[in-house]
């Protein structure tokens, strides 16, 4: 029985949907998330305070040239600071924090909204967040500077510029994460995504060396020259427009604002393209290509070659399943890629920062490591080990409600945690080994392999132990979207704080390695490897033993916390 | 194993979420060898009750026994006797059907050779063998139900607890699932399942309990509960739904 109404053309909407509706929807969703959850409110306030603190320090940095009345470095501060802001918005979501997907685009797929309405609406909703507010406060320092140096007209231009810069930041972070999510979702191009991330990070290296070199020479005029160039790119244009007016280059302001607007427009177009695929693709996310024919029994199929050595028992099954998941789950794979990229580049940057100058001083490359020391190397290894292990801080959150299978089967907590550590290490330990070798070779100190590898093993093991506890006690649910960078609202701050807490604790547990490196001198170069491996292994096993006990007592509670609320 | 113990016994199970009471004291005895249907409208607390009965959700009060073993005091023994298919819970769906079965089997401490043999049989019977290397995440809804059932059956449990096994399943798959469950019950196993499809419950169950608003409203054998009327009539009466619409939706037939 067909209803007559279906034949008629749908009436034009009485009230068009505008960005205002999206903003209100987001506020409502955020508010409902807090309902009856005191600790979430506390976390939110805590996060807001941290944001405010960063905002205040940023504000004074930006306002310094204006407050002191010294205009020489105004362009430098604006271009460099603003450029770093944009860069941060671009890269940090990919590497650490993820984007807040309170309003998941896929949920709007069935509504009769034009793409334009959707993008502007989601964009407006994205502007409602603590980080945006923090950046707004900080960048107001620029307005103050422009106003102090050039009067109200310059200040007015600065207001427009800063607003544009803020829009640029948000648009960039949305466009890039959305595009990456699309790429990672499709299994065919996932390797391309890895390469792209690697290249981006690789570009950071030379930039850093260059920046440090410039700082060291204290050639401020040269730096200002660089800043002027940056000021003409979208990275610096919005932030420097007001300063330019203040310093008499009035004609540049409209051009720079135009550059900003064009960049925002291009980013939004890019975003809307990938948004469409995110909305439609969510249904058939990553259909597997036809795989090889079935060979062997079910058990043989479960175990990947990587975990082929494991016994065919409960522990082995857990390891095999986890090993498969680290590769097949886009969210986990994104984490592995991050470890690989950051793990290689950060230590090289830290330790080679000095070598860069050595070359410039024409002392030759062999003495390049003169600036690096066992303590510095150990510290950078500490960072990598901690970063690698913190990936497991929410290891049960990756599983979501699927963890119910393990609860029903009554898997002992110790076996569970040991198996998860083992499976993750199957991927991470080879990476860490490569980091250790590459770093000592790049530094021109092959004899330091023991030192780098030992420190890595110790911090990684200590981190595994700490994160066993964090993952059992501080788990939270991840949204069930296909975007590997998506985060639940509210969980964003919780995640940040937890990650920070677990990283600090892991670092503290690993501090004995740094102390030993500082005190023991050359003997440590040989002792570091055996001691570090023993320390890391012992810490990891002890962590699994103790945290496993906790897990046994709160399996159902853990399941409830990692199950997404619908 | 004595026959005196009921397959599943619930006493005073209660749970509240954020101030709303989901389940307000459920008592239930499921006799061994019975085919037990747990009926209720949406939001009646079926899933919450079953989750507490199998150890997935800690009750605020009350306890549950599986064949005489307390689920919350002695979980390992109780869980060994249990096969569970939860609803609204993901499987480890980035595995293929065969891999998922192998995982569940080994997790239950089964011998690998037995796992291989039973997994092959189950995949064959449930017509999932053709899926080959397709990941469970790419399965259709009916296939997901079937592989979930296979996971629950694999270790040969004495008690099978299924949450909405017939939801979103096409008639062909539903017939197959019914067939398997009947065979399992005939072999001495006990089945408890929740549903709101009256026809299925009437055709399969020996016992029925109607749950509404977090408490048991009617309980007993199918004929006791149903009496002279159809199960649907009893259900609607107990739950107190409205059947006819008045003037409100007039625009629907404009």
From TrEMBL, chain A:
Keyword list, A-Z: Membrane, Transmembrane, Transmembrane helix
Transmembrane segments: 41-67, 73-97, 118-143, 149-171, 192-215, 253-271, 334-355, 375-393, 424-443, 449-476, 497-518, 524-547
Domain of life: Bacteria
Name of this protein: ABC transporter permease
Organism expressing this protein natively: Micromonospora parastrephiae
TrEMBL record, chain B:
Record-annotated ABC transporter domain positions: 8-238
Family matches, as InterPro entries: AAA+_ATPase, ABC_transporter-like_ATP-bd, ABC_transporter-like_CS, ABC_transporter_ATP-binding, P-loop_NTPase
Pfam families: ABC_tran
Keywords for this protein: Antibiotic resistance, ATP-binding, Nucleotide-binding, Transport
Membrane topology classification: Peripheral membrane protein
Chief localization: membrane
Compartmental location: Cell membrane
GO molecular function, one term: ATP binding
PANTHER family per record: ABC TRANSPORTER ATP-BINDING PROTEIN, DOXORUBICIN RESISTANCE ATP-BINDING PROTEIN DRRA
Protein name as catalogued: ABC transporter ATP-binding protein
Organism: Micromonospora parastrephiae
């Amino acid at each position: 029985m067909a209803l007559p109404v279906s034949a008629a053309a749908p009436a034009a909407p009485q009230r068009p949907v505008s960005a205002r509706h999206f903003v209100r929807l987001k506020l409502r969703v955020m508010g409902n998330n807090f309902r009856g959850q005191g600790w979430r409110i506390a976390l939110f306030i805590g996060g807001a305070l941290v944001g405010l603190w960063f905002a205040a320090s940023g504000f004074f940095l930006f306002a310094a040239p204006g407050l002191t009345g010294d205009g020489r470095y105004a362009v430098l501060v604006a271009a460099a600071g603003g450029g770093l802001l944009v860069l941060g918005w671009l890269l940090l979501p990919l590497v650490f924090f993820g984007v807040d997907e309170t309003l998941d685009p896929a949920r709007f797929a069935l509504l009769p909204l034009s793409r334009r309405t959707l993008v502007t609406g989601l964009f407006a909703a994205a502007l409602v967040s603590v980080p945006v507010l923090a950046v707004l406060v900080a960048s107001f320092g620029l307005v103050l500077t422009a106003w102090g140096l050039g009067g109200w007209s310059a200040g007015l231009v600065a207001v427009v510029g800063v607003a544009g810069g803020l829009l640029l930041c948000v648009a960039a972070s949305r466009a890039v994460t959305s595009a990456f999510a699309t790429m990672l979702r499709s299994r065919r191009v996932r390797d391309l995504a890895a390469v792209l991330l690697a290249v981006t990070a690789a570009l950071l290296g030379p930039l850093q060396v260059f920046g440090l070199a410039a700082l060291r020479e204290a050639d401020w005029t040269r730096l200002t020259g660089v800043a002027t160039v940056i000021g003409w790119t979208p990275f610096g244009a919005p932030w420097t427009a007001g300063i330019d007016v203040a310093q008499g280059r009035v004609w540049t302001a409209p051009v720079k604002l135009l550059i900003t607007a064009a960049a925002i427009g291009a980013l939004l177009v890019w975003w809307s393209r990938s948004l469409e695929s995110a909305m439609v693709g969510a249904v058939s996310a990553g259909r597997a290509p036809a795989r090889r024919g079935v060979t062997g029994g079910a058990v043989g199929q479960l175990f990947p070659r990587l975990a082929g050595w494991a016994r065919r028992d409960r522990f082995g099954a857990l390891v095999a399943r986890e090993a498969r998941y680290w590769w097949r789950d886009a969210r986990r794979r994104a984490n592995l890629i991050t470890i690989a990229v950051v793990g290689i580049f950060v230590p090289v940057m830290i330790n080679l920062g000095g070598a860069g100058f050595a070359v410039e001083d024409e002392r030759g490359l062999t003495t390049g490591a003169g600036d690096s020391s066992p303590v510095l190397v150990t510290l950078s290894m500490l960072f990598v080990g901690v970063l690698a292990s913190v990936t497991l801080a929410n290891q049960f959150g990756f599983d979501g409600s699927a963890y119910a299978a393990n609860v029903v089967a009554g898997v002992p907590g110790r076996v569970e945690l040991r198996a998860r550590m083992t499976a993750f290490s199957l991927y991470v330990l080879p990476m860490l080994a490569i980091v250790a070798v590459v770093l000592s070779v790049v530094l021109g100190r092959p004899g330091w392999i023991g030192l780098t590898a030992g420190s890595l093993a110790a911090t990684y093991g200590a981190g595994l132990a700490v994160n066993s506890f964090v993952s059992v006690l501080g788990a939270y649910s991840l949204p069930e979207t296909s975007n590997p960078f998506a985060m639940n609202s509210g969980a964003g701050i919780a995640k940040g704080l937890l990650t920070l807490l677990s990283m600090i604790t892991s670092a503290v547990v690993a501090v004995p390695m740094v102390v030993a490196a500082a005190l023991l001198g050359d003997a440590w170069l040989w002792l570091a490897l055996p001691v570090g491996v023993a320390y890391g292994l012992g810490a990891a096993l002890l962590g699994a033993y103790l945290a496993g006990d906790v897990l046994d007592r709160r399996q159902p509670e853990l399941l409830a916390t990692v199950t997404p609320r619908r | 194993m004595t026959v005196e113990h009921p397959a599943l016994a619930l006493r005073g199970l209660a749970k509240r979420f954020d101030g709303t009471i989901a389940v307000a004291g459920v008592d239930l005895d499921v006799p061994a060898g019975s085919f037990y249907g747990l009926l209720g409208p949406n939001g009646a607390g079926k899933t919450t009750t079953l989750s507490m009965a199998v150890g997935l959700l800690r009750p605020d009060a009350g306890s549950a026994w599986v064949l005489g073993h307390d689920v919350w005091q002695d979980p390992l023994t109780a869980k060994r006797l249990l096969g569970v298919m939860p609803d609204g819970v993901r499987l480890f769906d980035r595995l293929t059907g065969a891999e998922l079965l192998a995982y569940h089997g080994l997790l239950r401490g089964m011998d690998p050779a037995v796992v291989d043999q039973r997994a092959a049989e189950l995949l064959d019977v449930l017509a999932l063998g053709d899926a080959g290397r397709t990941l469970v995440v790419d399965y259709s809804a009916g296939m997901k139900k079937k592989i979930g059932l296979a996971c629950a059956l694999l270790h040969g449990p004495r008690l099978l607890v299924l949450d909405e096994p017939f939801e979103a399943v096409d008639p062909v798959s539903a017939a197959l699932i019914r067939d398997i469950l009947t065979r399992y019950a005939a072999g001495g196993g006990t089945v408890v399942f929740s549903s709101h499809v009256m026809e299925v419950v009437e055709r399969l169950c020996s016992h029925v309990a109607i749950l509404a608003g977090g408490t048991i409203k009617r309980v007993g054998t199918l004929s006791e509960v149903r009496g002279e009327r159809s199960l649907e009539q009893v259900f609607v009466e107990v739950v107190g739904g409205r059947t006819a619409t008045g003037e409100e939706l007039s625009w629907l037939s404009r």
